[in-house]
Design a protein that fits this description.
Distance between the termini: 39 Å
CATH architecture: 4-Layer Sandwich
Strand order of the largest sheet: 11-10-1-2-12-13
Helix content: 10-25%
Number of helices: 5
CATH class: Alpha Beta
CATH topology: Glutamine Phosphoribosylpyrophosphate, subunit 1, domain 1
Oligomer: single chain
Radius of gyration: 16 Å
Number of strands: 13
Number of domains: 1
Structural class: alpha+beta
Length: 237
């Protein structure tokens, strides 16, 4: 699989929807994750990320303009011990709750399907970073309809052990803009991870489509200690 430029991937796609990046810094010392949201409707664009405990939550920027909170207000990031959960919906809570009861990431997601937002049937994308005692590995998942047919849910899980320094994987909800929106296809894309947290955050934010981008979260986790740094960028502020 070719190593892609994350900057180029984002600049050439006006509407990837929501996206998750997980990888490792070039020096090999830090685990990296990023999550961004985009929006076409006023309701989707009327959001910000706010910190909540060790994770984040989406929140209406202007509560008086919020029309339907069902698929846009959720906790994209939660931390369970040495595991960081990152998803594009309320399945974050499903993974957190069921893994807390002894289930695996994959087992927890078997209880969920794609979003019920016909005709798009937006995929649910999820990631899990496990950082413990100098070891780092991660898993990514996508739950999607059968090419727009909601009668069948297709579930794909991708596990990455001992990820290579300077590399990551990128998964997003849509191939691009359209009506209905075409779901992501294939394996998560192999992308380059470079720069410190501020440089990486800046590159991502500047590469996202100016009209459609809403919020961005980036976290760097020290693989040796588990300590982390976080950046949040909101278009509305």
């Amino acid at each position: 699989m070719i190593l892609r430029s994350l900057e180029k991937e984002l600049k050439e796609n006006a509407y990837p929807g929501r996206g998750i990046v997980i990888g490792r810094t070039a020096d090999g010392c830090k685990a990296v994750t990023a999550y961004f949201i985009m929006g076409r409707s006023e309701n989707s664009r009327n959001r910000i990320f706010v910190e909540e405990g060790d994770g984040i939550r989406t929140q209406a920027f202007d509560a008086s303009r919020l029309t339907d909170p069902s698929l846009i207000i959720y906790a994209p990031v939660r931390v369970l011990g040495n595991r960081t959960i990152v998803t594009n919906g309320d399945q974050t809570d499903t993974v957190y709750d069921l893994m807390g009861k002894g289930m695996t990431f994959e087992q927890a997601l078997r209880t969920r399907e794609f979003e019920p937002d016909a005709p798009n049937y937006t995929p649910r994308i999820s990631g899990l970073l496990n950082v413990e005692n100098g070891d780092f590995h991660y898993v990514m998942s996508i739950l999607k309809s059968n090419d727009g047919d909601p009668a069948s849910c297709h579930r794909f899980t991708f596990a990455y052990k001992d990820p290579k320094a300077g590399e990551g994987r990128f998964i997003h909800t849509y191939q691009g803009d359209g009506n209905p929106l075409p779901s992501f296809e294939g394996e998560p894309k192999k992308v380059e991870i470079s720069g410190d947290i501020d440089a990486f955050t800046g590159m991502l934010w500047e590469s996202l489509n100016e009209d459609n981008k809403v919020s961005l979260f980036v976290r760097y986790i020290d693989i040796a200690t588990g300590a982390f740094e976080t950046r949040i960028v909101n278009k509305n502020h």
